[in-house]
Amino acid sequence: MNDAALERIAQALERISPAPLDAPDFGGADAFVWHVEPDRLEPVVKVNRVDLALLVAINRSRDTLMENTVQFARGLPANNALLWGARGMGKSSLVKAVHGEVVANGQRLKLIEVQREDLPSIGRLLNLLRPADERFLLFCDDLSFSHDDEHYKSLKAILDGGIEGRPENVVFYATSNRRHLMPRDMIENERSSAISPSEAVEEKVSLSDRFGLWLGFHACSQDEYLDMIGGYCTAYGLQIDADTLRAEAIEWQATRGSRSGRVAWQYFVDLAGRKGVQLVS
Q1: What are 8-37's pLDDT values in tens digits?
Q2: What average pLDDT does range 252-275 have in this prediction?
Q3: How many angstroms separate the CA atoms of 31 and 96, rounded?
Q4: DSSP per-residue string spanning the chain
Q5: 55 neighbors 90 (Cβ within 8 angstroms)
Q6: What is the pTM of this model?
Q7: How far is CA 168 from CA 61, 80, 263, in A?
Q8: Class for domain 26-217, per CATH?
Q9: Residue 264 has pLDDT above 70, yes or no
């Protein structure tokens, strides 16, 4: 093959290869969503969040996460955080609310949402963020891994950073219903069938140990559930008789078989609709 043919092949490969991703204008938004194929950061004009003051029954987790986030936003050391526990108790809402509060107080902190299935691309995202002047909070909601799921290896690039280390201007927050990010029956099955049970799942289970902060979320009491709804009523100026509110709210949670912040909000949305109260701020 002559030099001319090789040159044509090289030019063809250059044309079909993706161009290097340009750094976005981080000053144009406070939040972004990471997409792949092609790689890009899409700005989010308005983040879907609730006010921090409306998150009830999670005071300790709220204060701990806020302190960690403020430290990071100020350029101080901070930990990656795993928010785990009961469904609908405000894990993802807390992350977004804390970010909103920090930004409202004048800190330059950018929130970047990453989907679990896009974790293999995380190295490319970190390379994009590493030279930037801003500080970034990477957020993955509802993170968990199933049997033979190799995505957890990509997550280690965020938590440990490999040979380069995690960028100093990046911290990672994740939410999960599972403390160890995988089903308990899967852990037990691997332990029982392995030649060395103590080592069978060590690599995967130890992944959660790489988060410096573990914040647990537990089911709320009935009084806390009612306080959540009362807080929404006050925030949106909705007037209703206290006895009527209590009876309806308890009936609502009974029909769903659970109590949580999500159930409280769902009842309030129904109530606001019946009362003609707009929830758009």
Answers
A1: 665 555 555 455 556 678 988 999 999 998
A2: 95
A3: 10
A4: --HHHHHHHHHHHHHHSPPPPPPP-GGG-SEEEEETTTTEEEEESS-----GGG--S-HHHHHHHHHHHHHHHTT-----EEEEESTTSSHHHHHHHHHHHHHHTT--EEEEE--GGGGGGHHHHHHHHTT-SSEEEEEESS----TT--HHHHHHHHHT-TTT---TTEEEEEEESSTTSS-HHHHHHHHHHSSSHHHHTHHHHHHHHT-SEEEEE-PPPHHHHHHHHHHHHHHHT----HHHHHHHHHHHHHHHT---HHHHHHHHHHHHHHHT-----
A5: yes
A6: 0.83
A7: 24, 12, 38
A8: alpha beta
A9: yes
- CA 226 to CA 126: how far, in whole Å? 42
Q: How much is the mean pLDDT over the chain?
A: 85
Domain ranges, ordered by start, for the chain: 26-217, 222-275
Per the CB < 8 A criterion, the answer to whether 109 and 99 are in contact is: yes
pLDDT digits (tens, 9 = 90+) for 193-252: 554 555 545 655 667 778 899 999 999 999 999 999 999 999 999 999 999 999 999 999
